[in-house]
Write a structure and sequence with these properties.
The protein is of the alpha+beta class. It has 26 helices and 36 strands. Strand 29 and strand 30 form a beta hairpin.
Length: 887
């Protein structure tokens, strides 16, 4: 049975039994800061199990994408070494939220495995918690499992808990006996023998049924839950290996195409028993993790989820290196993952270009340093081998990490292969020292918000007053002073209702003014003072003593606040447009929102094309011109994420969050200030798009007044350029194009000149003609020209040289056309030698016709192959005309 069929049959089985079949959640838990990745089927239902949310159904079934590469569940080191461990796998699960319990869970599992999948019941074992008599009885009495096949184990194996406190309960696991028929003969194994068989991998766990029936308090006491629940998980790959009769998960139909692709790239067949077989399996496994993590929006970085992804990628590159590959390899296996699993998970097909482009880029980046890193590692180990040390120092491990990009766990793996260990505490000290240096450098170059403001001794007028931010609703507000501090000509003031935004979320602080009775403050800075937000700047006048405890004041935001709002809403539209044009992998990596411009950093691994920039710019402007309403509300975090609100990696959110929705365009969590309708933005223009780090691009853009100023400046520049080039702005492009073409021709001509080492002319025939009236020169040359003007200019030079003579010029233009020109000096014209007479006879030899004046004539050329002969023959014509005149 194919894995796709197993997955579908599992879901259909539970759908037929009243379960709501739910799609897999993403690999990045949207509302669980305790997890880097989704590592079990129950993660998307965690708040339901904890009683924090109520599901609209009582039972559910899923096939959940899972990644286990850290924390309690870390299978990274075992991948490729064993037949069952993976970084990415699919977990089949059925769940009951206070509906059915042990009896139905046990019956469902047995009916599916034995009844639908056709597994031999004589090859199945079950385990229960040693105290769970109820489960043991159900397996024996309800299902009919031989008591000798039911083994009671302790907390380590058969008790599950979500955390130190909270929901927990015993679990029951179903195992399949992988031993041969001969090995299975005789008595059934005792519990002790069963544990040994499990450790040896001769019996494999297929399905874990968790009976969530207790609530553990802080004292460790278990209290029965009022509505016990069921959480089960079965690894699809393990079930498939049993049903397909193979000895390893890596040999099921989901892995066959991946291992075959590795073999095709390496050029050697896969031998599962050979030592290098480990590398084939690692590449196949890691390709799945890379493909699915990238498809779910994780991007390779040096922190958090992104760093885990980068570690997986680099481990794969190292295994390809061990197989002799010195070029990107994993990218081809990722491509096979998309082909193999894209029909089940459409996000793979939809993001294919991004997946392949990013994987290749990461491989190329690490391949550029891996050789040096491997050489350094060998050098470190070789130098240590001369002594007694079997430890790689923390400094050396850090050097591999910092200079060559080797993740610590990769260095540890390589060290173990050579019989060494790594001084991990020493590595962490070196890493902490680097971070401290980085923070110190940043502190030296970064001006803090409150720098230059001496808060000194504050005059507090109303210590018990809670300050309220009113900047979302009001730009001018009548309020009162709560506290203030004066330092010479500057002051810091706290007002009861504060409209001034404090820098955060990329948006800079507001500016404006406070105006009181006989005093005013120009607001230049906004900063946090304990639990208050204070404004500071130059003080004019004297803040009066509180009369009756109140000092009234008017707070006024500067007009540029609206420009800031335009830019902030535009960043949301830009984010949505980038995801629509470039792909769902685009996520925000940073931003700056100021009155005069906006800056948006985002995850993407290559420069945008002109067409992509144009498409993004067009979509943002279409959203602006549609004048969408901007709706802002505060809702529970889970509800916001459920609606599809974009949340930023690394940001911490409270239980209630502020959502900013541009109807039909964008929905994000945001605490900044925004326009009321997108039409207020006016116009959006991308000013630049550049790379600022590996996999991170930056767009600088403007809106509203900023865009008007941009186009105003561009118009001025265009007018200035047109004036210099002696044309009008509307014809500027045509004029520039003309100049570029002329420049190209000149460059070509200059090249010919440089190659020929002359003025660009190629002499064909030159002779001094002896005549009775005196000698004169006859010159015949070829010349590359841009046009007739160049030929005439050459002729003017000949005529003005002061020499008596005739010149016949064969001119070749850049487009390959040829022309004849004849130039005659004035003294020869008086002697009867005329250019208009000469041209007829010379041009006739090349099939051309022409005419002109006595001193200059021009003709076309039909047969360029006869040019040299015609140029030489001109001498005889000149002699004849000169002799006839003398006679």
């Amino acid at each position: 049975m194919k894995a796709d069929d197993i997955r579908q049959r599992f879901l259909d089985f539970f759908r037929e039994r009243g379960h709501e079949v739910r799609a897999s959640s993403t690999l990045v838990p949207g509302d669980d800061p305790t997890l880097l990745f989704t590592n079990a089927g129950m993660v998307q239902f965690k708040k339901v199990f904890l009683g924090q949310e109520k599901a609209p159904f009582l039972r559910a079934a899923t096939s959940q994408k899972c990644v286990r590469v850290g924390g309690k569940h870390n299978d990274l080191e075992e991948v490729g070494q064993t037949a069952r461990h993976h970084t990415f796998f699919e977990m089949l699960g059925n769940f009951s939220f206070g509906d059915y319990f042990k009896r139905d869970a046990v019956r469902y599992a047995w009916d599916l495995l034995v009844g639908d999948f056709g597994m031999d019941p004589d090859r199945l074992f079950v385990t229960v918690h040693h105290s769970d008599d109820e489960s043991a009885e159900l397996w024996h009495d309800e299902v009919g499992v031989d008591e000798r096949r039911i083994h009671r184990l302790g907390d380590k194996d058969n008790f599950w808990q979500m955390a130190d406190t909270g929901p927990c309960g015993p679990c029951s696991e179903i195992f399949f006996d992988l031993r041969s028929e001969v090995e299975r003969e005789g008595q059934l194994p005792t519990t002790e023998e069963f544990v040994v068989l499990s450790d040896l991998g001769k019996v494999v766990e297929l399905w874990n049924l968790v009976f969530m029936q207790f609530d553990r308090d802080e004292s460790g006491v278990l209290h029965p839950l009022p509505a016990p629940s069921i959480d089960t998980g079965a690894g699809l790959e393990r079930v498939a290996s049993v049903l397909q009769g193979v000895d390893s998960n890596f040999h099921i139909d989901l892995f066959d195409p991946l291992v075959e692709r590795v073999a095709a790239e390496v050029g050697h067949r896969y031998d599962p028993k050979a030592p290098e077989g480990v590398s084939y399996r690692v590449l196949a496994d890691h390709a799945r993790s890379v493909a699915f993590l990238l498809a779910d929006g994780v991007f390779p970085t040096n922190e958090g989820q992104g760093y885990v992804l980068r570690r997986i990628l680099r481990r794969a590159v190292r295994h390809a290196w061990l197989l002799g590959r010195r070029e990107p390899t994993l990218v081809h296996v990722v491509d096979a993952v998309v082909t193999c699993m894209g029909s089940t998970y459409p996000e793979l097909h939809e993001g294919r270009d991004h997946l392949l482009r990013t994987t290749r880029s990461e491989e190329e980046r690490f391949l550029a340093t891996i050789e040096g890193g491997m050489a350094l590692f060998d050098q470190i180990v070789s130098s240590d081998s001369q002594g007694t040390s079997t430890t790689i120092s923390g400094d050396d491990a850090f050097r591999l990490y910092d200079t060559h990009g080797f993740p610590l766990d990769l260095t540890e793996l390589m060290a173990r292969e050579r019989g060494y260990r790594v001084d991990v505490p020493g590595f962490e000290r070196a890493l902490d020292e680097q971070r401290a240096r980085s923070r110190a450098d940043q502190a030296r170059t970064t001006r803090t918000v409150s720098e230059g403001v001496d808060l000194g001794q504050w005059t507090v007028l109303d210590a018990g007053t809670e300050q309220r931010f009113v900047g979302y609703e009001s730009r001018v507000h009548e309020t009162e002073v709560i506290a203030y501090s004066v330092d010479g000509e500057r002051a810091s003031v706290v007002v009861r209702e504060n409209p001034f935004y404090l820098e955060g979320g990329g948006q800079i602080s507001d500016s404006g003014a406070l105006t009181g009775d006989g005093w005013s403050l120009l607001v230049e800075g906004v900063q946090r003072v304990n639990e208050w937000t204070a404004v500071s700047g130059p003080l004019t006048g004297v803040i009066p003593e509180a009369g009756g405890g109140h000092v009234p004041v008017r707070a006024t935001l500067a007009d540029v606040r609206h420009d800031t709002e335009r830019n902030h809403t535009a960043t949301h539209l830009l984010h949505a447009a980038l995801r629509a044009v470039l792909g769902e992998h685009v996520v925000q990596r940073g931003s700056l929102v100021a009155p005069d411009r906006l800056r948006f950093d985002f995850a993407h691994d290559s420069p945008m094309t002109a067409a992509q920039r144009e498409a993004v710019e067009r979509q943002v402007n279409e959203d602006i011109w549609a004048d969408h309403p901007v709706c802002i509300e505060s809702v529970p975090y889970a509800e916001a994420v459920g609606r599809g609100a974009m949340a930023l990696f690394g940001e911490k959110y409270g239980d209630v969050v502020r959502t900013v929705q541009v109807t039909g365009a964008s929905l994000e969590l945001c605490g900044g200030t925004h326009v009321r309708h997108t039409g207020e933005i006016g116009l959006f223009k991308i000013l630049s798009e550049t790379g600022i780090a590996a996999g991170v691009r930056r767009i600088e853009a403007s809106t509203g007044r900023g865009t008007f100023r941009h186009f105003e400046a561009m118009g001025t520049h265009a007018a200035d350029a047109a004036s210099i080039l002696r044309t009008s702005p509307e014809h500027l492009a045509q004029r520039v194009r003309q100049l570029v073409e002329e420049c190209a021709e000149l460059e070509s001509l200059l090249g010919e000149v440089r190659k020929g080492g002359s003025a660009g002319e190629v002499p064909v025939h030159e002779v001094t003609v002896e005549a009775s009236a005196g000698p004169f020169v006859y010159r015949a040359v070829r010349l590359r020209v841009r046009g007739a003007d160049d030929a005439r200019a050459w002729g003017d030079g000949f005529l003005g040289s002061g020499r008596s003579g005739v010149a016949v010029l064969a001119a070749e233009s850049g487009d390959g056309t040829h022309s004849l020109f004849i130039f005659v000096t004035d003294d020869l014209i008086r002697r009867g030698v005329r250019a208009d007479l000469l041209i007829r006879e010379v041009a006739g030899q090349v099939g051309g016709k022409g005419g002109g004046r006595p001193h200059m004539a021009q003709a076309g050329v039909a047969d360029p192959t006869a040019l040299d002969e015609a140029l030489v023959s001109g001498e005889a014509v000149v002699r004849r005309l000169a002799d006839a005149s003398a006679a």
